[in-house]
Structures are given as C-alpha cells and as structure tokens.
Amino acid sequence: MLATRALTWRIGEVAIVDGVDLDLAPGEFLGVIGPNGAGKTSLFNLVSGLRRPTAGQVLLNGTDISALPPYRRARLGLGRTFQASSVFGSLSVRENVRLAVQAHRGGSMRLWRRAAADREVVAAADAALDRVGLAHRAEALAGTLAHGEKRKLEIALLLAGEPTVMLLDEPMAGVSAEDVPELVGVIRSLTGDSGRAVLMVEHHMDVILGLADRIAVMHHGALLACDVPETVMANPVVQEAYLGESL
Ligand SMILES: Nc1ncnc2c1ncn2[C@@H]1O[C@H](COP(=O)(O)OP(=O)(O)OP(=O)(O)O)[C@@H](O)[C@H]1O
C-alpha cells in the first residue's frame, strides 16, 4: 500500500534519514519509534510530502509519489494529522470538520445541487465526529476543547479526507494520562474496517505496544529493525540503541 525505497534526506554531508525501506500493508498498523533525534519526524515529513527526499522513493499503491506536494498525496489517499494550528478556534467543532469535508470533496456551483450537497457534507462531518467520540461536542467552539478532545478533532479532520493511509504524528502529545486509554481506543478503531493502514510515530512505548502490528525502530536516520513488537523488544541491537533512554 505505502512503501519507501532507500528513502534518504541529507543536509550537507549528514543523512538525517538514511536509506529507509518500509512496507505498509492494507489494514496494518505500523508504529515508528526511536531515540530523540533518530529521524522519525523527518521520515514522516518525507512520506507526507512536507520535504522532498534527496534520494529514494515514496510509493503509494505502486505509484512513485516522491515529487508530489502534500495536497496531491492527500487526494491520492495519504492523509496526515493536521497540526493544531489548522483548527479554527473560533468556529464550532462541526464547522471545522465540515470545512475539511468540503475541501476534500470540492464544491459544486450549481444552486440546485448545493442544498443536497450541504446536507451530505454535514452528515459526513457528523459521522467523522461520531467515529472519534466527539459528537456531543459538535456545537462547542474548537478553541475551548481540552487537549485530548483536540487530538480527536485532528483525527476527525483527517477522516474527512477519506484517507486509505493515515499518518499520525505523536497523537498522544499533551494528552493527560487519564484520557490516553480512550484516545488509544479511537486510534485502534481506525484500522478496524475498510483496510485503512496507519503509520504512527509515538513516544509512549505502552501506547505503541498496545496498537502496532509491527514496530519500526529508527536510529541515526536508519531503520534498525522492523518486526512484530515481541521480536523488536527482544532485539539486543534495539536495546543497545536505547541505552540511556527509557524504552
Ligand atoms: N531542517 C533541519 N535542519 C537541520 N537539522 C535538522 C532539520 N530537521 C531535523 N534535523 C536534525 O535531524 C535529526 C533528526 O530529527 P527528527 O526531528 O527527524 O528526529 P526525531 O526522531 O523525530 O526526534 P524527536 O524524537 O526528538 O522528535 C536531529 O538531529 C535534528 O536536529
């Protein structure tokens, strides 16, 4: 579904991402971990299109998308969580998702089509909010949401684009411990149906272990291991890489 081939991003002589080969199967949940500065975010930026690789490729369903900007990749089904800054705080939660659905579907200028289309857009927005457990907050101003709710809204905005591959960049960031299990449940449900695949960078090991089918470990820009959680955790090379860091 999603693949990287010898994916590399150099700044001068330094390889920030160094020849990474990854494969993500339909319906698969792949977690990316690694010590601070390992290149996880940079890898994400290359996959989503925020950065262009200096060598290697990103493939989506066999098509080389390495040169496409993020919005073209999103249209092909590769969606990345919106950063909090893309949420309009003074609009309601529902309006935010409605705008994302509209942006994804494109508008029809025909008046007779518009009313029906508007109803469909609102229904799609409400369905996305329902999926992430935010339906009861649809009328609230997005700016008033708690951290955990904001993360859910970001996932709903992503769902509005109907992605087949979802990239989640540290979805637990800033979420209080008591809200983590519910958010984990929402994220787990993303791969449950429709063959949608998820690639997630997350610092919390317990979260990754509870969600991922396989775990990719990055170290100094390279892929150290990529396997099922038990095998990765038992790998002495991985344990060595994390020496001095909490696994
Ligand atoms: N634009 C840039 N210019 C120079 N160096 C960069 C740039 N972006 C990233 N780096 C460097 O590349 C390395 C990898 O950074 P990256 O943010 O991808 O790692 P990470 O694994 O996501 O780290 P963390 O877990 O701390 O978020 C770091 O040493 C960082 O300083």
UniProtKB/TrEMBL annotation:
CDD domains: ABC_Mj1267_LivG_branched. Keywords: ATP-binding, Nucleotide-binding, Transport. Residues 2-245 form the ABC transporter domain. The keyword Transferase does not apply. PROSITE patterns: ABC_TRANSPORTER_1 (PS00211), ABC_TRANSPORTER_2 (PS50893). One of its GO terms (molecular function) is ATP binding. This is ABC transporter ATP-binding protein.
